[in-house]
Structure formats: C-alpha cells, structure tokens
Amino acid sequence: MTKFVLNVVFPNTDRSANGKAKADATDILTTHGFERLNVPLLRGKEKITPKNLLKIRQLLRQRLSSDDVLLIQYPTNIGFVINNMILRVCKSKCVRTIALIHDVDSLRVNSLVTKLYKNIKSEVRFLNKFNYIVSSNDRMTAYLAEHGLLRPTVSLRIFDYLTTASMPVFKIKDKVVNFAGNLYKSEFLIKYNQLSEQTIIELFGQNLNNQVYDGNLKYNGSYSPNDIVKELVPGLGLIWDGASVDSCDGAFGRYLLYNNPHKTSLYLAAGLPVIVWRKAAIAQFVIDEQVGLTIDSLADLDSELKRLSVDELMVMHTRAQHIGKRLRNGYYLKIAIDKALKGLDGND
To answer: Is the pLDDT of residue 194 over 90?
Structure first.
C-alpha cells in the first residue's frame, strides 16, 4: 500500500500566502510517508482538452494501485471535470481517498451563490465521494453534517505553519497588536481609526490600493510567508475580518464562524498570542490552549489589553511558543492524518 498526496503544480514556484497552507500540507505529508502525485494546474476550457485529460488519467492509472491511499486537498483549483475524473479512476482501481478541507467556497464566497460547486449541496455531494474527510474544526464538521455529509470525519483543529525563520524576541510588557493579511478587504481598519483608541495596530500585507494608514494604524510593508514571521512586532496578533469593528460581518466576517484563519497559524508560529472574535470557530482552540484573548468588539481592545496582567500575558506567550513549535513541525496535520488512516483501516 502506497500513500499519495495530490500535488497541483502551479506554473511558477512562488509561494504566495494564499498557497502556503496547501504547500505546507504537502511538505508535511511527504515527511510522513506520503509520495507526491504531481498534476499540472489546468485553467480554462481551452486547456482542459481531451489530450490533457488523457495524460492525467494515464498518470493516475500508472501510479495508483488497489488499496493505495490518495489524499486530495480541497478545493483543488483544477475544476470539477478533473476532480471527478480523478475520483472515478480511484474508485475503479479501489484506491481509498481522503479529502483535506482548506476552504468551503459556499461559505467563503457567498452562501447564496448557486454556481456548480459553489453551493453547499454541491460541495457536500462532492465530499461524500471520498472515503474519509479531514475537516478544519468541529464547527465546520457539524455544519457539513447538517447539510448531508455522511463520511467519517476528523477535525484538524488548526493549520500548521512551516517556517525556518526565528521567532521574534518577546518582552514581558509587549502589548503591541499585529495584523497581517489582505488589507484591501479588511475594511474594518479605517473604522478602527475612528474609535480614538490608544492601541496601535501594526499592519503587514500588500497595500494594493495605496491606502494611507495613519493614526492608530502603522503600515510595515509586505513580506513572504516565511520572512514575515521574523518581521512581526513582538506582542500579539489580531484575527478579524469584515467591515465592522463591532463584530465580524459580511461574507468574509461570517466565514470566521467556520474556518481556520491561516493568520492564526502565522502568529502562533511566530510565538505570538492572538486576539480573535469571540464567536469565531478558532476561538475555541485559543481558549482551550490558553494562547490569547477573545473579544466581542474592537472597541474593547484597549480595555482588554489594559486588564491583561503581566502574569496572564506570560502564560499566553509561553503557551503560544509551545503551540508554535508544534505548528512548525506539522504536528496537527500528522495527528489528523493518522486518525484518518486508522479509520480507513477500520481501526477507529
């Protein structure tokens, strides 16, 4: 029996933040007994030709054998035609399949979108074609089950974050707040400046609209997913999304109710405690592991940080360093995959 991870090969090898989670997962799995099964990224109808599809089908038939395991990271970015072809080949060759969920597009984009593979019924229908599912967290698992997911599922809890960069040097009094991510869609930032709060937020990310950040916002530039770890300011990391400072709203904000934000993993891999919306799915991990604060509104940020004692901050920092080391070593994915493999063998 051979274990494979489907590795979608992009035209260039540059790892943007958007692709890092999948690239890390592939790297972790290859150190955990999996082999890469490279499939080229094909986009557009002109590229999904019978000739190209035949090449992929032949590759699968040559590499896969009965009782092998193929892990596919979902969504694949290669489209439903190739997705379904891959699963048909696996079924015909008695290859067992595992889906590792990174995102649920119908939640991330818009719950009302009805395009193929962009609504929850279509997504669950596709996921039910797998033998085993690795979901992001318990809340996402419950949501998928409510909408018809029938396959056995294990929750990942948090995405790992591979990096060779050193952790920032932390000082016990540091209560600086970092925010790293897509600044263009983080509409709440400008409204935060209007709160007249004292806490400055250190911003990291591409400033695509050349927004001028002043007042309580300080822009620090954009860095690669590896380099940003050592550029973060010692203190805490903020996980927030949407247009409001009072709660996480809109499609992106509501998505926090179900997903594992990759920036949580970034902060913890840097050894920084986190601040997260209390209703976010990842908040349970933060509470259980004592690695940060949960808040209802950004208007509470000042008071919550002032309330935080030196001893409490030290505990959070120590715990964040501990979890950060786990994330740097692929701990959570390895645990989840081992459970999935046992489940495939009927040893739950």
So the answer is: no
- Tell me what the mean pLDDT of segment 264-291 comes to: 98
pLDDT of 125-176, one tens digit each? 999 999 999 999 999 999 999 999 999 999 999 999 999 998 888 776 678 9
User: For residue 74, how many C-alpha atoms fall within 13 Å in the half-sphere facing its CB?
Assistant: 28
pLDDT tens sequence across 18-49: 589 999 999 999 999 999 999 987 766 656 78
HSE-CB for 154 with a 13 A CA cutoff: 20
If DSSP states are collapsed to H, E and C, what string results for the chain?
CCEEEEEEECCCCCCCHHHHHHHHHHHHHHCCCEEEEEEECCCCCCCCCHHHHHHHHHHHHHHCCCCCEEEEEECCCCHHHHHHHHHHHHHHCCCEEEEEECCCHHHHCCCCCCCCCCCHHHHHHHHCCCCEEEECCHHHHHHHHHCCCCCCEEECCCCCCCCCCCCCCCCCCCCCEEEECCCCCCCHHHHHHCCCCCCCEEEECCCCCCCCCCCCEEECCCCCCCCHHHHCCCCEEEECCCCCCCCCCHHHHHHCCCCCCHHHHHHHHCCCCEEEECCCCCHHHHHHHCCEEEECCHHHHHHHHHHCCHHHHHHHHHHHHHHHHHHHCCHHHHHHHHHHHHHHCCCC
Regarding pTM above 0.90, the answer is yes
Q: Which one, of 230, 237, 119, 264, lies nearest residue 176 by Cα?
A: 237
Q: In the numeric block, which tokens belong to residue 110? A: 């818009």
Which tokens belong to 256? 């926090």
Confidence of residue 15 (pLDDT cuts 50, 70, 90): very low
